[in-house]
Amino acid sequence: MALLDIITLPDAKLRLVSEPVERIDDELLRFMDDMLETMYEAPGIGLAAIQVGVPRRVVTIDVSGREEGSKPAPLFLINPEILTSSDERSVYEEGCLSIPDYYAEVERPASVRIRYLDRDGKLQEIEADDILATCVQHEIDHLDGKLFIDYLSRLKRDMVIKKFVKAAKSGVRPEFKSHTPDEM
């Protein structure tokens, strides 16, 4: 397995809409393993293929590490889609491996039902709630060219983008309030 480079704001690739996966082969399985290793190393709880510069509808997620002593429980989602969303809402403080060190509260549906292909190419449907629901929605947004900062006010979003553009030009990482919730 190999660590992949995670692209960050203001990279325009983050706004690409990812293409569906046509077939699951050894190359895709290796790529997903590399994505998972990259996600764990970052560390994060979710990673979309576009975050490593590959515009394909592939996501790795593992929210199990939130509890001490828990064993890894990775999910591999190929061509995921949200079938239904609850009317009930929840708010989580989100972070993103492609927007390092920036966190903000985002309101999303509290639960979602998703359909996806697993590593074996089998069609799966699951009901996700709590942090898994938030993470799934966050990662599927990536596949559609959307970032969690798009849920913020225009003023806040523009401020974040401006800081990352300036940082990219100067080569210095932008600074924000320091706290470290899970990064997706």
From TrEMBL:
EC numbers for this chain: 3.5.1.88
One of the Pfam families matching this protein, by short name: Pep_deformylase
A single GO BP: translation
Cofactor note: Binds 1 Fe(2+) ion.
CC cofactor: Fe(2+)
Reactions catalysed according to its record: N-terminal N-formyl-L-methionyl-[peptide] + H2O = N-terminal L-methionyl-[peptide] + formate
Keyword Metal-binding: yes
A molecular function GO annotation: peptide deformylase activity
Record keywords: Hydrolase, Iron, Metal-binding, Protein biosynthesis
Active site: 139
Binding site for Fe cation: 96, 138, 142
Role of this protein: Removes the formyl group from the N-terminal Met of newly synthesized proteins. Requires at least a dipeptide for an efficient rate of reaction. N-terminal L-methionine is a prerequisite for activity but the enzyme has broad specificity at other positions.
UniProt record similarity statement: Belongs to the polypeptide deformylase family.
Protein name according to UniProt: Peptide deformylase
Gene: def
